[in-house]
């Protein structure tokens, strides 16, 4: 079991260290190797995704990823910015299926912006297609507008694209995930406006016929953005494209009030996967030892389950996390009156102890 | 002052009738003419936006629009579906500037999904570009994939496009609106991924230099979807493209908990405008006399202010709406214990009486 460890920028190093610590007490044999990624890699090697890092990632069974990004790279050309590392990994490894759970932990319900009754027990799984759509569609660029409202003016453009097989495979992922949950898939599209999402809707409907035990409904993306706020518990599995998934998964994560708790997985057809917390690199608190490592620790659990075929080890980590929450231990982001505030290291140690 | 009255489908007829009633007691001379639009127009004339309706709209100073859509048109070819009427009006009349306020009325704060302290006093103005972006960008369609992951497979595609002058004009609208408010513009983009939104960000930044008194910040769309949930009062004016604006304006509207109260305006360069409630046609409650007409009545107030140059009349309507709320009158959608439930007609009558 070969794991590529890519801590990245900001709090990345601190939180990944805790996840590694947890993996190391599981009595499993891992081969772990670290490499630079993101801004840290740009600083040392002139590129956010150096060849050596990509090679390590390709050869691993799974990638444990921290976070990338810092304001100081904002002025760089897009190709050198930290985020390009993550887009490059997705593309090069074909990580098309992004799992982003939005779970509201009972003890943390109060941290949500929403009224407790709307989010208590919330458990949504957003499945976002991750290698297609307008993120990677060619052609794209700048040019003189060939037509439109201002022909000849400076114009920028991108292309949204989806093929039938791309939609089919992500739809299968969603229906199969729903079978292990509440058997309800909501496919989010904008078929009333976009050709791409009319095909999306047609294909998801077709694939759905192979899963008669799973209830399928379709929702326009604007309505989905509303219903997530109005009645989040309506949702079980949400499947959508790369762009809409980017927006809705972050909205859903924030509904829980504790994005510092949410892991994510990005898988390819061979179950090789990249595992990372749903939150970012938080440069403002980097190096202070206060970041919440639980999302990354839970990402390691997802890694054990999805890519390394160690479901029992995954369970052990997840139970340990529940138990530290039950003990009242909280990092600053999830702290509230009456609980014990701990730092990044102490939280990692507590999870290790609970295992 | 020529007003084209387009009630449309579902509750459209009922709510527009109340707005017309209110306009008629203002002691102003309007020339009002009605026409079919949406599903109603398709049923009678075979097209959701008949030539005669478009002509009436073109020749009017303003359009008072109800709502369009009904499940029964879902199986029609996209070009015949009710929503095409609204897209056609936007495009043909060049209604590029969409104003969508998300206001939380003090008496209705409890109706929000969010905790009261997060939304009480909320007043966001979303300015959405409405005639560009992936909504109208050519080319679009279905084809055999020329390249990508599955060359030769059936593919659908759309084109996202913005030219510099399109971005400039909507940016000016946003900065000018912010000057009359809290002088804070948040421009929402996805410059880290999309060429189109790198140009967007560059141009908004440039235009912003002409408004040194207005604070400008930039936010990625996924982060904006989160911050709307986390700290909605951070925002004053939000300016964004057509697609992101569709999603974020609905999310913001739902935060207030009373989408039945929210008007909208869509203006062109000559201040000709289309005015409609932010909510939809609600076919499930159509014809029952229970729909909330206040969003449409408030849309008529926006029409008086933006297109008909009657700001005092607009003020009178807005004060009257506040006064009926203060009287405790509520339609079913905003009703709560201790207030008086009224129907569509009674609510319209109450506004008329308050004027
Ligand atoms: C960093 C950025 C390119 C990325 C995306 O848009 O996919 C991020 O927002 C995410 O959701 O993983
Ligand atoms: C009906 C639909 C085409 C429309 C849009 O997407 O613009 C609607 O959602 C809106 O926001 O006015």
Automatic annotation (TrEMBL), chains A, B:
Cofactor note: Binds 1 Mg(2+) or Mn(2+) ion per subunit.
Claim: Amino-acid biosynthesis is one of the keywords in the record: yes
Subcellular location: Cytoplasm
Residues where Mg(2+) binds: 222, 246, 250
Pathway field: Amino-acid biosynthesis; L-leucine biosynthesis; L-leucine from 3-methyl-2-oxobutanoate: step 3/4
Annotated keywords: Amino-acid biosynthesis, Branched-chain amino acid biosynthesis, Cytoplasm, Leucine biosynthesis, Magnesium, Manganese, Metal-binding, NAD, Oxidoreductase
Extent of the signal sequence: none
PROSITE patterns assigned: IDH_IMDH
Domain (Isopropylmalate dehydrogenase-like): residue spans on this chain: 2-351
Residue numbers binding substrate: 90, 100, 128, 222
Entry cofactors: Mg(2+); Mn(2+)
GO terms assigned for molecular function: 3-isopropylmalate dehydrogenase activity; magnesium ion binding; NAD binding
Reactions mediated catalytically: (2R,3S)-3-isopropylmalate + NAD(+) = 4-methyl-2-oxopentanoate + CO2 + NADH
Binding site for NAD(+): 280-292
Enzyme type, top EC level: oxidoreductase
Superkingdom of the organism of origin: Bacteria
A cellular-component GO term for this protein: cytosol
Residues marked Important for catalysis (site): 135, 190
Protein task: Catalyzes the oxidation of 3-carboxy-2-hydroxy-4-methylpentanoate (3-isopropylmalate) to 3-carboxy-4-methyl-2-oxopentanoate. The product decarboxylates to 4-methyl-2 oxopentanoate.
HAMAP family noted in UniProt: LeuB_type1
Matches recorded under NCBIfam families: leuB
Quaternary structure and partners: Homodimer.
Family: Belongs to the isocitrate and isopropylmalate dehydrogenases family. LeuB type 1 subfamily.
Name of the protein this chain belongs to: 3-isopropylmalate dehydrogenase
Organism of provenance: Ramlibacter albus
Upper taxonomic lineage: Bacteria, Pseudomonadati, Pseudomonadota, Betaproteobacteria, Burkholderiales
